[in-house]
Each structure stands twice: as C-alpha cells, then as structure tokens.
Design a protein that fits this description.
The complex is a heterodimer of chains A (about 200) and B (about 60). Chain A is mainly β. Chain A is about 10% helix and about 35% strand. Chain B has about 60 residues and is an alpha+beta fold. Chain B is about 15% helix and about 30% strand. The longest helix of chain B has 9 residues. Chain B is globular. Classes of the chains: A mainly beta (about 200), B alpha+beta (about 60). Chains A and B meet through helix 1 of A and strand 2 and helix 1 of B.
Chain lengths: ~200, ~60
C-alpha cells in the first residue's frame, strides 16, 4: 500500500459488504509473460470470458502465449505476507512502539501429483522466466484476475517461481512435484472473480 | 537476402462478439484443429480440409 503524500483529505470510505468473496480452491494455473491485457473494448476485443480468446492465446507464438498447468494435485494455498516491522520494546523507535514499514509478498504453493516427466520438465521451464503473470482457475470453473479498469483485466505478477524435483514416498503413494511463487504485496487489492463462458478445466 | 512473406489467414470467432482476426497460417492451423475450436475460416482465398489449410482450388497445404 502506497502511503506517500499527499494524504487523502478524509478517511477512505469502506464499501458495504453485500456478499462474500472467496477464492475457495485454486485448481489450475495459467501463466503468461507480463504485459498482456484482456480488453473487451479493444479492436478486436479480447474478452477474457470467451473461449476463442483463450484459444488464440494458447496457440500464440509470441509473448502473449498462455500455458496451462495440469490440475493441481493438492495443497494449493496462499500464505499472506506478514508485516515488515522495525523496533518494538527497545530504544530504536519512539516510545519503543513497533513500526510497520511494509508488507512482505504472499506465498503461493501447491503440489502436482503423478506428473509425466514431459509435463514436469515443461513446468520447470517456467523457472527461467523472469516476468510472469498468473491466472488462477478456481473451483466451480471460476477465474481470479486483476481488474485494471471496467474492461481491462490482467493476471497477477508471479515472482521467484520454483518447481521442485519429483518426490517419492514409496509404496502406495503418488509422486509429487511442488510449485511455489511469490505474489506481490497488495496482489489482491484489485481482485476480481469471473465466471467464463466455458469450462476452463475441460475446454482449455 | 529475400524475406519469406508470412501467410496471413482471416478467421472468425464463433463465440462472444464473433470477432474477425488475422492469424499467421501456423496459428490458424492450430486454432482450426483444436477439438473444441471456437474459430472458423472465413478467408475466401483458403479452404480447411479438416487437417490443413490449403489455397482455394488447390489441394496442397499452404507453407
């Protein structure tokens, strides 16, 4: 959160909460190089709700190309970044009161299970990308994105992406590959959850 | 050195706003071959035989 001057003349109004907003389970991820914006009013329009638009991005051979992971096998979580503080209970701050100085990035992690090695290798190739945006496909076929304005939408910046080697727990278990990445502080400030006109788990 | 001219094909989306867009031939082929493709060929200069885009009136695929 940018708290630099000038300060607002009054407290920012908090909108009434009429209905709950929950991601629920993140079940699939879409990755793209940073820089693309879905724009339903552009010429030609690129409405994020249309399957044709996603098909064009999936088959692209430039920076707009979107790649989709297999279904997440388990444990998809986003741990929110904690406060960055200084001082507290000592002489380094006024009255010894802890100072809040910022927010750490949030940490996404999940596990893929029983991946063929071709898929494992392809997912690992994302580690070499420095600037990625991620689209979160949610249970119920919903899609979590960042709203830029009324018609413009993009994903979330995914930083420091890591994909592990294959783990094995022996008899009666499935092999696992873990993925993690950081989401910038404030990643959910402009969160929008959409319901595309297609099933992203079947049609893409 | 002569540059290879990129072949561009016009497709039309069959969903949403039925957008018309130009695509390089390779991408147009990929789009039309998708199992649940939401794109159709509307370029009068080409035909799609279910496998490959060819020039209208010719059977060979366009390179």
């Amino acid at each position: 959160m940018d708290c630099n001057c000038p300060a607002p003349t009054e407290l920012t109004e908090i909108p009434n909460v009429n209905c709950p907003v929950d991601l629920k389970q993140i079940q699939r991820l879409g990755f793209q190089r940073i820089g693309y914006t879905f724009d339903a009013t552009a010429t030609p329009p690129t409405d994020i709700l249309d399957l044709s638009v996603w098909q064009a991005l999936k088959t692209a051979s430039d920076d707009t190309k979107v790649v989709l992971t297999p279904l997440i096998g388990g444990d998809p979580v986003i741990e929110p970044g904690e406060a960055i503080t200084s001082g507290g209970g000592d002489n380094s701050t006024l009255n010894g009161i802890e100072e809040n100085e910022g927010t750490n990035p949030s940490a996404f992690s999940c596990v893929f299970k029983s991946l063929p090695s071709e898929a494992e290798k392809a997912i690992k190739a994302l580690k070499c990308e420095k600037q990625l945006t991620v689209y979160l496909f949610l249970q119920g076929g919903r899609l979590a994105v960042t709203k830029i304005d009324t018609d413009k939408i993009t994903g979330f910046n995914a930083l420091s992406l890591f994909v592990s080697d294959r783990g094995n727990q022996g008899f009666g278990t499935k092999d696992t590959v873990s993925m993690s990445f950081s989401l910038e502080a404030g990643w959910s400030d402009n969160l929008q959850i959409l319901k595309p006109n297609f099933n992203p788990f079947v049609d893409l | 050195m002569s540059e290879v001219k990129k072949v561009i094909v016009k497709l039309k989306a069959t969903d949403g706003k039925k957008v018309e867009r130009d695509f390089p031939i390779d991408q147009a082929n990929k789009l039309l071959k998708l199992p649940k493709s939401k794109w159709e060929l509307i370029d009068k200069n080409f035909v799609f035989n279910g496998i490959e885009i060819a020039k209208a009136g010719k059977s060979e695929p366009v390179k």
